[in-house]
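Let us walk through a complete example step by step. Step one is to write down the protein sequence. Step two is to encode the small molecule, zinc ion, as a SMILES string so that its atoms and bonds are unambiguous. Step three, shown after the inputs, is the structure prediction itself.
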Amino acid sequence: MMIKRSDCEIETEIGQWIIFTKGRIVIRKGEINVPLAHINEFTFLENYREEVHQLPPLHESAQKSPPVFVVDLGAETIEDEQWDSVSLRHLLFEQQDIGFSVVGRAWQYVHFLRTHQFCGQCGSHTERVNWEMAVHCHRCHHRSYPRVSPCIIVSIHNNEKLLLAKGVRHKEANMYSTLAGFVESGESLEEAVHREVFEEVGVKVKNLRYIDSQPWPFPHSIMVGFIAEYESGEIRCQENEIDDAQWFSVDALPTIPPPFSIAGQLIAKTLSQLADK
Ligand SMILES: [Zn+2]
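Step three: the predicted structure of the complex.
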């Protein structure tokens, strides 16, 4: 649900402002967080007052927090002494107090609007629905909602060893992580785990256990996390996806993802389960 606030509410309330310019977010110079501010502090928003939306809180506990206002400046960049911008990824990784979900949700909404300006069925201009997060075509009545793409992510262990892989796209970071991949149409989450693991590293797994999930806004995934046991097969990396994959001993792990990511959490959980055995 996305509520458009009346001008006077935006004018009077102090809020957290998530302002997008291209794929970046506006921050105060010298700070890495979403600014807590009054609209008048953003002189560059003069022509965007109609574009300000409030992101409704997802959980009751967030209702006590200041309102979150979202604005998309599109391709416009800001030249202002007071303000700077930072990439979404950098902001999310550096500053987690406003929450992965709030900034991630704001980005998914903005990304959705940017990519749904026209109806996918008849090609007419769409209009925002002001009482839910959707766009509507008034010609053919087709309605679109933000896309959420399920992805499985799995930590695989064999006795005291973890199977971790370095993706082709993250080669430079030299980081080894759990395997992950999109769920295909018509496939269950478990089937996706078996297929992805076999495609990416050529091994078979068993005893899948669901652990946790995490929204991942790059650009609109929901990561569904599992732990699985090795069953059979030798590692054979899929050329286009995996640069390297190895069995790592629990006491000699490579660089792994940070603990706030679900990959980091699955690895930590697998290690603690192995330690309890
Ligand atoms: Zn249409």
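Step four is interpretation. The helical segments are 7-12, 88-94, 100-115, 189-201, 262-276.
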